[in-house]
Amino acid sequence: MYQRDKTGAKMKQFLSINDVPDLNGLLDKALNIKANLNGKRELGKHKSIGLIFLNPSLRTRLSSQRAALNLGMDAIVLDVNSGGWKLEFDDGVIMNGDSAEHVKEAAGVLGRYFDVLAIRSFAALEDREKDYEDAVLNAFAEYSGVPIINMESATGHPLQAFADLITITEHQKKSRPKVVLSWAPHPKALPQAVANSFVRWMKASNVDLMVTHPNGYELADTIMEGVSVEYDQNIAFDNADFIYAKNWSSYTNYGKVLSSDSSWMITQEKMNLTNNAKFLHCLPVRRNVVVEDAVLDSTSSIVLDQAENRIVSMQTVLESLLEELK
Ligand code: AN0
Ligand code: CP
Predict the structure, then answer these.
(1) Please, which residues bridge with residue 110 across strands?
(2) Residue 8 pLDDT grade (very low, low, confident, very high; cuts 50, 70, 90)
(3) Is the beta carbon of 284 within 6 A of some atom in ligand 1?
(4) 154, 134 contact by CB (below 8 A)
(5) Considering only CA atoms, which residue is closest to atom 11 of ligand 1?
(6) Tell me: domain 17-156+310-325, CATH 3.40.1440.10, correct?
(7) Domain extents in the chain
(8) Residues facing residue 87 across a β-bridge
(9) 195 CA to centre of ligand 1 in angstroms
(10) What's the CA-to-centroid distance between 40 and ligand 1, angstroms?
């Protein structure tokens, strides 16, 4: 049976960037895989992955299935909220309420059905401590007995950040590009997961990273350690090679929307302040709220390349895990 082990140099699970023993090696592997997506059709034969969703998805769901099928794996999707029993995650609860099944059994059962499990479970944005324990993802890791892949947890979205890194690598024109993560407005409270992972992966890469956001949108200190923050978006955009837009709700005033200031929307006028920067967003994106049409519809936008690279990031992670399962 699969043993959790972080001491070896091989990838054993993919909960966060901490599970990547060699980032440059993984990136090289991804670029090679992209050049021949059908090169390892036999590797995953007779192996299976369960894709477990507690929240909606378009890209993650389909790129993960695509990647698994490219490797010859069976991929089966479960939307827990519409097709499964309502799960309990707390320990020691008297389960006489809504929840019919505890994650201890559910994860254990799924571990008997699949060789690998992938989980999506967003932050609830109510209790910061609880979210930042990443309890749902960790419960599956603890009770399933099989390798777990994070398809966006409360605190991170590493498959997205890996796809972002691949995309930036493909488009960069200088060895150390300036990459700006810009907060942008959104009507609903969104998690910090995408921004957290983007910062962590960029910090580990050869880029000049700057983060820009309004007051009150500071990300966790542990994530932002060593990263420069510029509160004036126009100054941040100066000489940027890549603009990565994302909304997140406040971390300090947890889960709150503190600003819907439309002057933070990414416009063509602002893109003109950059070094002819490419525009990135993980999608889904609200047009003319987060970013105006003119930017998304311009040749500077590489959002579809990013989405395409979600197949590549998942396929690279799966290939790494399958090599260990053999
Ligand atoms: C989610 C988020 O911001 O975390 C998923 C992004 C991949 N976005 C929305 O809910 C709109
Ligand atoms: N970027 C991303 O994860 O998209 P989905 O929410 O559609 O999977």
Answers:
(1) none
(2) low
(3) yes
(4) yes
(5) 284
(6) no
(7) 17-156+310-325, 161-307
(8) 101
(9) 10
(10) 31
Q: Is the CB of residue 189 less than 8 Å from the CB of residue 158?
A: no
Q: How far is CA 273 from CA 93, 223, 228, 276, in A?
A: 55, 27, 19, 8
Residue with the smallest CA separation from ligand 2 atom 4 is 59
pLDDT at 5: 45
Output the pTM of the full model: 0.97
- pLDDT at residue 279, as a whole number: 99
| Residue 169 Cβ contacting ligand 2 at under 6 Å | no
Indicate if ligand 1 lies below 6 Å from the C-beta of 191. yes
The architecture CATH gives domain 161-307: 3-Layer(aba) Sandwich (3.40)
Instruction: State in Å: Cα 189 to ligand 1 middle.
Output: 10
pLDDT-based confidence at 1, cuts 50/70/90?
very low
Q: Tell me how far the alpha carbon of residue 58 lies from the centroid of ligand 2, in angstroms.
A: 6
**What are 53's two structure tokens?**
């969703």
